[in-house]
Write a structure and sequence with these properties.
- This protein is 29% helix and 16% strand.
- The strands form two sheets. It has a 14-stranded parallel sheet. It has a two-stranded parallel ribbon with strand order 8-10.
- The longest helix is centred in the first third of the chain and has 50 residues.
């Protein structure tokens, strides 16, 4: 009988009555066991629910007293002060919103409120969003339902709040950022409103303690601020970031006072702050001590040279260089004895007309050179230009520790030659690939295999023996070469430094059958007692995109979104009158 039941269990034939009776007899015992087990489960679940309710009641009865045991309540005030200071945002100044520190600290309990209000350093930094009174004119979008009087009232209250905030800062140096909300400046305004002047008056009451100032303001507002600070020494001001928008006056000299502060060290100028070259003249004090200058607006080579001459103590300079002719005097050299970091982004750099700037700069202490290009960059393979001035500038910087350059600008020979020239000093190398469409027609100028250190090679001939950090973007280097490079620089070869970080962004997918390179490097470095941060980013396979349906799949319904499954699951994706979307048939 059991054989017959096994046969019936394997097909879908109608069972005879005696087989049905036999199966019921065989399963009666297991069915009872299942019923007993489910009954026991219900009993245990009922008991568990009773215990959960009991535990909840006990927890509620002791919660009122448990808070007394919280360790934070026993911390001394000086420890709480330190914790409070570390709770402030570090990437910008704190806002006045109640959900962010330091305001949030005043809403926890009376003790914390008292401690927070009596800690001056918590209130030494502030971000102030603002807008001009009367900015809500006829062109204000309908969704802004605030009336002009409501806006003015909020702005006046904000001025009062700023005063109260800064009064709590005691004698601490101040960091203030002011941002006028964009899109609300009426072009017909010819003078600054009273509320804005009130805000500046409140802030300038503390001008002697002002250390860092960040401004995102319209030109009209900025010029008013310049007038108000004209007779203020601002001796404590060391850092200024300026972004001036809504430029109304052609050729207007903006920086007549702020950037002439005698102790200014850090200056950053936003792209639209300087509309033309006239504004570069004499924007700093005659004998300034500026050490960091980031000029994000477009400059000609001549303007960059002028800025460098104005700042002889510069440690870091950042410039966006556009095409221009350069007036060169015989024997002219700009000696930047303190310059340690120079970042230059060239806009449409294919012409060498402005490259003479690199011949004029003498920076014997330069340690970091970042060279980027934007615009229509012609890869070296399509036009024979290797920017000789840039190349020679790199080659004559023997103390260069960090270099970031575009990968597809220099030919392989030139690239290898200047890497060899700085081989003994370089610690960090970055090959960026901005604004270049990498196709198979472009030969990759950098061969990672040239950096593989081999045991049977004299360490003096190893290229970049001090290299610790490598970043390589838009490459098709093989996994085998990556593995060999990483494992060859793990401190096993004398006088060749151990790698600390390698980041490679590949222009190819990961080979499905290849071993996990990151796992292999991690295992090998662990055996040697070192750590290498290896970051590999492959192209993401299309089949890993959620909802993707391949063109060979029988589930391919339509051609929408390059194979992505259509949400309505239709073959005809166009709207028709019988789609059932409310169309009434007459």
């Amino acid at each position: 009988m059991s054989n017959r039941l096994d046969v019936l269990a394997q097909n879908n034939n109608r069972p005879p009555d005696e087989a049905v009776s036999k199966v019921k007899e065989l399963l009666s015992g297991p069915w009872k066991q299942i019923d007993d087990a489910k009954a026991e489960i219900r009993r245990l679940e009922s008991r568990a629910e009773e215990l959960r309710l009991k535990a909840t009641e006990i927890e509620q009865s002791i919660t009122h007293y448990e808070c007394i045991l919280a360790p934070v309540r026993r911390l001394p005030p000086e420890i709480l002060y330190a914790i409070f200071e570390h709770s402030l945002p570090t990437h910008r100044n704190p806002t006045m919103v109640a959900s962010e520190c330091p305001m949030l600290l005043t809403r926890i309990c009376s003790n914390w409120r008292s401690l927070a209000l009596s800690s001056p350093r918590l209130w030494a930094r502030i971000h102030i969003p603002f807008l001009t009174e009367g900015a809500l004119g006829d062109n204000t979008p309908d969704f802004l339902t605030f009336s002009s009087s409501e806006v003015c009232n909020v702005l006046r209250l904000r001025c009062d709040a700023v005063s109260e905030w800064l009064l709590r800062s005691g004698d601490c140096s101040l960091s203030i950022s002011i941002c006028f909300v964009s899109g609300f400046v009426r072009q017909e305004q010819d003078k600054v409103d009273k509320t804005t002047i009130t805000l500046f008056e409140r802030i300038l009451t503390f001008a002697s303690r002002l250390k860092c100032l960040e401004l995102h303001v319209p030109e009209l507002v900025y010029l008013e601020l310049e007038k108000m600070i004209h007779n203020l020494p601002l001796l404590g001001l060391t850092q200024v970031k300026v972004s001036v928008s809504d430029l109304l006056t052609e050729g207007q000299q903006l920086f007549t006072g702020l950037l002439t502060s005698p102790n200014l060290r850090h200056v950053s100028i936003a792209p639209h702050a300087l509309p033309n070259g006239q504004l570069f003249r004499n924007i700093f004090a005659y004998e300034n001590k500026i050490t960091h200058l980031s000029n994000h607006t477009y400059c000609t080579a001549q303007e960059v040279l002028s800025l460098l001459k104005m700042c002889p103590y510069l440690h870091h300079g950042e410039f966006s260089l556009i095409y221009s002719d350069l007036e060169r005097r015989p024997g002219e050299t700009i000696n930047m004895q303190y310059l340690a970091s120079l970042w230059i982004t060239e806009i449409n750099p294919n012409s060498s007309a402005s490259h003479g700037i690199y011949d004029l700069i003498n920076a014997p202490k330069l340690q970091y050179f970042d060279y980027k290009t934007q615009g229509s960059v012609v890869p070296y393979g399509e036009d024979d230009h290797d920017f000789p001035s840039v190349r020679m500038f790199i080659e004559r910087t023997p103390k260069l520790l960090q270099l970031s350059i575009g990968r597809f600008i220099f030919s392989p020979t030139v690239l290898y030659n200047f890497l060899h020239a700085i081989s003994t000093s370089l610690v960090r190398l970055v090959f960026n690939a901005l604004n270049v469409h990498y196709t198979m027609k472009i030969l990759d100028p950098f061969d990672l295999r040239c950096l593989i250190a081999r045991i049977d090679t004299d360490s003096r001939t190893v290229l970049l023996p001090r290299l610790e950090i490598l970043e390589l973007y838009r490459t098709r280097v093989s996994d085998d070469d990556i593995l060999e490079f990483a494992t060859s620089r793990m401190g096993t070869i004398p006088n060749v430094a151990k790698l600390r970080m390698v980041k490679i962004v590949l222009d190819r997918r990961r080979a499905p059958n290849n071993p996990d390179i990151q796992l292999a490097v991690k295992k090998r470095s662990h055996e040697l007692g070192i750590h290498i941060d290896l970051q590999l980013e492959y192209l993401r396979p299309a089949e890993q995109v959620p909802g993707y349906v391949g063109f060979l799949s029988p589930m391919h319904i339509s051609n929408t979104a390059y194979g992505a499954r259509d949400t309505v699951d239709r073959t005809w994706i166009f709207r028709e009158h019988d789609d059932g979307d409310g169309y009434i048939t007459v």
